[in-house]
Here is the input.
Amino acid sequence: MNAVEVRNLTKTFNVGRQNAVDALVDIDLTIQPGEFVSLIGPSGCGKSTQLRLIANLLEPTSGEVLVNGKPARQARLDQDYGMAFQQAGLFEWRTVAKNVELPLELKGWDKERRRQRASEMLELVKLPEFAHHLPWQLSGGMQQRVAIARALAAHPPLLLMDEPFGALDEMTREHMQTELLRICGETGSTVVFVTHSIPEAVYLSTRVVVMSPRPGQIKTVTDVDLGSKRDVDTREDPAFFRKVTEVREALRGMQVTDLDQAVLEP
Amino acid sequence: MFVLALVGVAVLWELYKLIGPQDGGRIFGLTILPRANDIAMPHVWEMLSRYARPERRGASGSIFLVVLSGAWFTLRLALTGFVLGTLIGIGLAILMARYKVVERGLLPYLVISQTVPLIALAPLVVSWGGKLHIGGFEWPRWLSAAVLGAFLAFFPVAVGTLKGLTSAPQATSLELMDSYAASWRQTLFKLRFPAAVPFMIPALKLAATASVIGVVVAEISTGLAGGVGRLIIEYAREATSDPAKVFTAVFAAAAIGLTMAGLVALIDLATMRNRPPKEAFE
Here is the structure.
């Protein structure tokens, strides 16, 4: 069974009106369990929109999205995926542990089981001693770890991430990338990851999906065969640079403009 | 800080008495400046010492006790009005946040409702209440005053809570709740309400003082005895013979307002203790 299956997907915003925009046209994408797939492209290429369609936060205009072999809507209702955004988006009135427990509360887990799982998750993201801190007492990187712990708390097979490290400084960012790979290695999660950093996409992914704008579509798909063990040395590996160059070439020549961005990536 | 301000007001009062015209400042025959004589503006110490003396000649006990019991009566009414108004306000806000149609249909009427003069409304509420018989329930007179307090209190709560419920939660937080397939009710209680608290606190402060005003005015216009409103009217009639007397009741009304505001400050402390500290201005 495929983790994600996108068939013939088209998304048009403002259908039938003057300002109708084709955000995505004819998208086909199949993701196997355990894969780490990045969506990369200039603003307006519809990468965030595609993530939201997989998450069923948006409905497709036509085509089909299957998650874990189910329609995307059913997968959402079953909490088959966890999601993380650029803003950690922790609830400031909840302690770190309570933030991680949120999806479990919504699932109706009892208190003891929730506490147990939350402490496991904080162990996983290496923040066990911050369980009773409040979000504002944590640094940006730490908050993002909590957000990842929250996204994975219910052990969903799929993790959807929308530029989760976009707001972090470069050093924290590289550290978080390594941490994310470690976490996904331990949990065996499948990841769909939206980014506009080429090295980030190459470092993290087993496959990089390069998208082009207006209308948003998939331009190329690049396999990244750098092995499953990636660390500091990977970033200095000539094979890594070759892949970065390859993705950069694929992105070249695309019109980069922020026109319509507000409409295309709501 | 508060005490300092109080002293400041007292000093200003006495200063004006010292330099202000005894019969008021007149410009083109119109009295512009208030009279500074002892009848219109009794000395501060005169007002304070009035508390120690009996309500009227021959009465036992000081007027302080009379005013205090009046204040207690009014405070309970204001509290009832405040709680009632808050519940109604929050209920309306939830409805308006849930259904856009309700917001569009209802909000203008809520605004209009606040332009109805309370004095005109008071006798109506009393007569409606008097006609109301549900089972063995008899509408008590004091309830009319509390309802009028609620009438003023619900509005800021409804508007403030609505604003908080709809615009306080971040877009990504709402998406997050959607991604968990959370129901509207779950989103309301786990996200919207906690996020709305900073919007609700100032609204509750307005409601707290508004409910006191509503109750005092209602006491006066419905002739409800026992509270501060009635005392103010009674004592004001004696303004020429005993000018300090009315101020004892006026201060009591102010104290009730402060008590209510203090109550909201406690709610503030209790609900906001986990929140990020505000930019330090103090």
